Amino acid sequence: MYQKQRLFLTIVIALTSFFSVSQNQEISKDSLETLQRQSFDFLYANDFTNAIASSKYLIHIAKKQNDNYYTSYGYSGLGSTYLTLRDTVNSLENYMQALEFAKKTEQDTFIAEVYSNIGHMFMDTGGDLNMAIENFEKSLELNIRGLREEKELLKNYINLAWTKIELNDPDEAFEYLTKAEKIVEKDSTDILNTINLNTLWGRYHYQKGDYSKAIEELLKQAQISENASLLDEAIIAQRYLSKAFEADDNMVAAIASLKKEKDFNVALQKIANEQKVREISAKFEIEKYQNNIETAKEKEIYTDDLDFKVRNETTVYIIISSVLLAGLLIIVLLFRNRKNYLKSLNTKNKELQFAKDEAERLSKSKTQFFSTISHELRTPLYGVIGLSSILLEDEKLGEHKDDLKSLKFSADYLLALINDVLMLNKADANGIKLEKTNFSLNVLLKNITSSFAYRLEQNKNVLHLNIDGNVPDKLIGDSVRLSQILMNIVGNAVKFNESGTIDIKIGVKQIKKDGTYSIIFSIIDDGIGIPKEKQETIFEEFTQVENKNYNYQGTGLGLPIVKKLLALHNSDIHLESEEGKGSKFTFTIDYKPANLNEVEAEFEEENVPLNTFENVRILIVDDNKINQKVTQKILESRHFKCTLADDGAQAIDKVKNNHFNLVLMDVHMPNVDGVEATTAIRVFNKQIPIIALTAVEVDEMRKKIMDSGMNDIILKPYDVSQFLTTILKHLSTSAQDI
After folding, report:
1. Which sequence positions carry the modification called 4-aspartylphosphate (predicted)?
2. DSSP label at residue 462
3. Do 648 and 671 contact (CB within 8 A), yes or no?
4. Model pTM?
5. pLDDT in tens, 670-729
6. Dihedral angle at the C-alpha atoms of 12, 13, 16, 22, nearest 10 degrees?
7. Residue 236, CA atoms < 13 Å, CB-side half-sphere
8. Where are the domains positioned within the chain?
9. Which whole-number Å values give the CA distances from 414 to 418, 419, 443, 520, 621, in the listed order?
10. Which of 308, 358, 527, 536 sits at 20 to 30 Å (Cα–Cα) from 407?
């Protein structure tokens, strides 16, 4: 007791001394940090008087230094102390002050901590649990935005799960419990969080009516709590165990749990009585402390006034002269240092500007390089894939059908490899943005399965597609990214399997309140499987599973790309695999159903009469003769009438002097490119549909292309069915009398 009074007196003297120092005196960050730690040390030691004194002192000097960070910490310390003393009014008032100053720091994770404290106040005092949830959700949102470490996210998940369980809402709690469990599995050394999670799972299963599972979880929690001498946690475990046993008709065990709860309560009550004495003593000492502060201030004012009156004039003159002389010396030194500093600053600014310009130049060069590479690689591939597709349709070349299939497969494989490398570069540069367009899931899956026909036949695999009837066919989302995800996963399943089976299963995991469907995709194969020690590394770039019995080609980019694309959808991929028995990849993506009238139908040639397009005239603008011919043959084989133009200048002239129903415009051309040509055409013809044909990444050029007046974009090489579907969608009304 004597030591506590002496320490309290020390703080009062420190506060009194502080009021007598100059207002301009600087207080170091280390001093503020020490005060902050000291105030919480007092709180944890149940020394509430000194905890409050330290926190108020910290607030006082932090405000003088305009330090919002430590001012907020001071108010948080007061809030925590008053909460321990069960003074909820003062606790909430100080927490709100802490939040006000925390927001001024603009540090998301720091603000999140204060929101979490406020949530705890509402939850621990049995107050408004909805207010607790609101503050916990704000804390979680800020922690996620601030990329806080998983340990902090774990606290948010447990807090939210706890309040949902308290509100008897186990379904809402399940999401947070699942996320918390994933984090705890990585670090099982955090005993308190492990206990809390076990308790919550037990209560969750109890509320869901699975009493045996509830008992299993609560028994684990009870054992850990007793071993760690955590009385509060042990009491909670036994309380809910007795309820679970009673619900399970095991009254003997229920009574035993009630007895244990009572024994623990007796032990805890002894500690609580001691705590109560400390609280009463603290409240008395706090009032005494506040009176001492006021007395100290009055004494300081009186002493300063008396000292000023008796001060010797000579001493004043000496002090003033010394200050003036010191000030003059400081001014001279500052002027000299300022000159050197400005010179150094000017040099550093030039270096920084040069580095900035160089970084921007390199970034532009990299973007231009990949844009050029994309165009230069895809352009000849368009010719190879297009010509091989045309030749495959020629019945006269039936004896070469297998060779042509091999040629097309090789070209498709090379295109996929190019796309993977470019996609990985864009993902690393955060250059991918999801689009929201209407699409048909059935059409997308049909195109994917048909693209694997040759490889399935080659490896003697069978592909099964199973779509739950509750899954909407017409969806709103980024169909291109979904296609890339499925192509990579299914491609691996086909490649690493021989004479086997691949199943694609699609179902509805959840329908949310806003009408969003959480659609779960599962790709299952009975191939070579993945060893457990490799199941983490396969999602790293350029990593593949080695198998001595097989020689598989590939770059190891597919799964890393899948993981990055799923991250854009706020999702992740889950793997279940056993070596020699196959693998199962699962992921979930949220989609909203689309209006049935807004989703364009896929072009189906067998439903279209041969003479349907005889009066449709299309202008093909491309500087590459091979690509011209490929596009021309594809269209003329469907009885379209085609005219060719080698560059933008010719296109402008032909559109001006002839009638066309549609223009297919290459973007990159010499002299006048596609964008310039379209801009010129729109001056005198605003009705004719113009569709861009480009081998450059669409994201890089989309705004420029659409701003020029083009109606749509087709990326080369393209799928013929989608190509024809896009053309039909944009055919002008002049061709509708066909």
Report:
1. 666
2. E
3. yes
4. 0.42
5. 889 999 999 999 999 999 999 998 876 666 678 888 899 999 888 877 777 778 888 888
6. -130
7. 20
8. 190-272, 434-598, 605-735
9. 6, 9, 24, 30, 26
10. 527
